[in-house]
Amino acid sequence: MRASRLGFAAAAFCLAALQAGAQQDEAPPYDKGPVWTFSIIRTKDGRFDDYMKWLDTDLKPHSEALKREGYILDYKILIINSPRANEGDIWVAREYPNMAVFDHSTKDDYAMFKRVEGSRTDVNTQQASRASMRDFQGEIMAREAILK
Length: 148
Fold this sequence. Notes:
Blueprint lengths: L1 H24 L4 E14 L4 H22 L4 E6 L10 E7 L9 H12 L2 H11 L3 E14 L1
Antiparallel strand pairs: 1-3, 1-4, 2-3
């Protein structure tokens, strides 16, 4: 009887060890990292420098305010060397800490945007004025994978 208990205990120990090893093998080789968005912009002919100036004088202060508020971690302006036909020549990249930053109530979003940008009327007017310089091509959202 004692031998069968020892055998059962040894078998249980081996099974537990095998399961622990299997769980380690199933661990993902990466962790979820920050979230990136890429706004794709195509500047209109002859308006590239005007749009770059707008990025420096308007987008940069706005992005710095978003960093202070904790909504974004960082931002980058990427110039596409040789865009293909109908593709953007500027990408605005923003790094967010996680997906949760997108899950605020609309009321909270509006309050934050008012602190950062001013009134909705001013924001809409500014957005309309940028239309003479560029065409918004769309946006890509991606989550960074951090390899272990």
